[in-house]
Amino acid sequence: MWDYSEKVQDHFFKPRNAGAVANANATGDVGSLSCGDALRLTLKVNPETDIIEDAGFQTFGCGSAVASSSALTEMVKGMTVDQALKISNQDIADYLDGLPPEKMHCSVMGREALQAAVANYRGEEWKDDHEEGALICKCFAVDAVLIEETIRANHLSTVEEVTFYTKAGGGCSACFEGIEEILNKIMLERDEEEVVAPPPEPVKPAKAPLTNLQRMRRIEHTLEAIRPQLQADRGDIELVEVDFDKKIAFVNLSGACSGCQMAAATLGGVQQRVMEDLGEFIRVLPATEMGKF
Amino acid sequence: MSEGIYLDNNATTMVSPEVVQAMLPFFTEQFGNPSSIHQFGNKVGLAIKAARKQVQKLLGAEHDSEIVFTSCGTESDSTAILSALKAQPERKEIITTVVEHPAILTLCENLEKDGYTVHYLKVDGKGRLDLDAYAKLLTDNVAIVSAMWANNESGTYFPVVEMAEMANAAGVMFHTDAVQAVGKIPMSLKDTKIDMLSVSGHKLHAPKGIGVLYLRRGTRFRPLLRGGHQERGRRAGTENAASIVALGKAAEMAFEHMEHENICVRAMRDRLKEGLLAAIPNCFVTGDPDNCLPNTLNIAFEYIEGEAILLMLNKQGIAASSGSACTSGSLEPSHVMRAMGIPYTAAHGTIRFSLSRYNNMPEIEKVIAAVPPIIAQLRKLSPYWDNVNNAPLEEPEKAFAPAYA
């Protein structure tokens, strides 16, 4: 559960100025559907005085998005348009006695809706100049975009430097991996060595495949190596048939092995050895099962 | 708020009073180390043995030695996947699904950075897999398949028994994260080809901090934690005796209540579904309702956001959870809902109600009465909603198309 202030809760459960203003002459639609917050701000501005006489909001969003929208409408009512434009997202958060770091973007949305609405009132086109990335450092609320821009602008190359410039990583250390990833990406672009070791060589080159005859010999060879152990327990094993299409080797267990309760476990062990020696998957089944395939 | 109505059992469950009773002595007089030879230790060792049998019975495992106690479902998941990779170093591929729990997905993403190739099976609109696509991926290069038994958000089952058969026939290990399924549906692992399975105690009325990795006898294994000989060296670290005993008791109770879960809990869930769908316009059930856990109901309420719904429900003492971005602090709604192609306007409004045997029908009726006004109230605030006609705007996504901010 989020740690919402009393004031946030109050503005969420009892939103002020909900709904569209009648006869509005300024509308601002902002938000991002993918991240789940969107806001339509409507204002009624007196064209003579530029004073905002009424404000209303419609919000698709979480508790703090609704509360931020509600707070914004309360704040701007009675202000001139120019005064209202001076409201920062921090002012909105302060008005609500603070927002959790993950939720600061809700207040940013409020400020931008205001800018968009004013642009609409003045007949201008509003362009969003703000880009937001995934939150990397939760201690100091620093997102990926800010980190990336700071690294590029200042030619940073260590996590310590990033912390020095942005505070990101200066708290609980949980985001070091995230910062390193961004650093690596940018340093690769700059053609520099990575901060951390590159991943190990993934796959060995495949060996030339064996022929069926070679495989059969190998299986026999493995079984020969196993036989002394079985013979020590008065049992024995012999290869009967290999079906390479179905990847099955059929064997006869004889002596004490036949009918032994551990026969299945023995075959499992044999299969393991055969697979390891052969370097590919194969099932080892008793020859009595040959008819079933 | 009176007592409160708890419908968030897929997140965690109440510890049963009987379970608490069973574990209490292990904090006081039964404090011995089960590895010790003296009577203090021996009694605890015997209690752990009994708990292992109880879990074995619930899972339908062939041997009790196939039960390895761990600290949680995440540890079991990590142990399973990392073990498979370590035991088969020549195999560099993993098959999993796009809707797995982060315990699997985050691990897999991390393994990709280490050079492993991960195949993520996609799901359709109802959260179902394409088994033909799966069959094509089963090769000698694959170290392990990991697919969840039931999805934590939608409750939808994957055909893990069939998938395990297919993997086995191709010589590939199969793991399933079954933390949502264990205790809710009957299982007989001895009749399946599942090699490894993860259990989380707190999802079935045991406390948090205890889990199980089922490890089929004969499966090649490498431990995650090395040290003492506990759990036959497969998971070192002094046993969490009290919680192991608790999980044993919880497993026993889940086994006894299996029929109740699948008849009574299911009936409550069905009533909730029917009641909410009848009372609220523009909402729908996500996932595959005909093939899902008996206790889970996930409904998408269009044009409003989940966290706002939860806050209002919470005010009335009703606890549920949501797949919206805001509830988790991420920038995207639930990966499960997105994978099923649910549009953003609905994905952010998904609410999961998950029941347990400790719920009752009067509670369900209260929830059915409480939810519709909350939805209506939030829709009044929504820029997508036409308050005059009390319906979504015509072509809502065109009528309100905000600038990205």
Describe the fold and architecture.
The complex is a heterodimer of chains A (293) and B (405). Chain A is α+β, with helices and mostly antiparallel strands. Chain A contains ten helices and eight strands. In chain A, strands 1-2-3 form a three-stranded antiparallel β-sheet. Chain A has a three-stranded mixed β-sheet with strand order 6-7-8. Chain A has a two-stranded antiparallel ribbon with strand order 4-5. In chain A, α1 crosses α2, α4 (89-95) packs across α5 and α9 (212-232) crosses α10. Chain B starts with a strand and ends in a 6-residue tail after the last helix. The longest helix of chain B is centred in the middle third of the chain and has 22 residues, at 258-279. The model of chain B has no long low-confidence stretch (mean pLDDT 95). In chain B, β14 (385-386) and β15 (391-392) form a beta hairpin. Chain B has 405 residues and is of the alpha/beta class. Chain B has 14 helices and 15 strands. The chains are: A alpha+beta (293), B alpha/beta (405). The interface between A and B is large, with 59 and 48 residues.
Comma- or semicolon-separated keywords:
heterodimer; A: 293 residues; alpha+beta; Sufe protein. Chain: A; Arc Repressor Mutant, subunit A; GMP Synthetase, Chain A, domain 3; three-stranded antiparallel sheet; three-stranded mixed sheet; 8 strands; B: 405 residues; alpha/beta; Aspartate Aminotransferase, domain 2; Aspartate Aminotransferase, domain 1; 2 domains; seven-stranded mixed sheet; four-stranded antiparallel sheet; 14 helices; 15 strands; globular
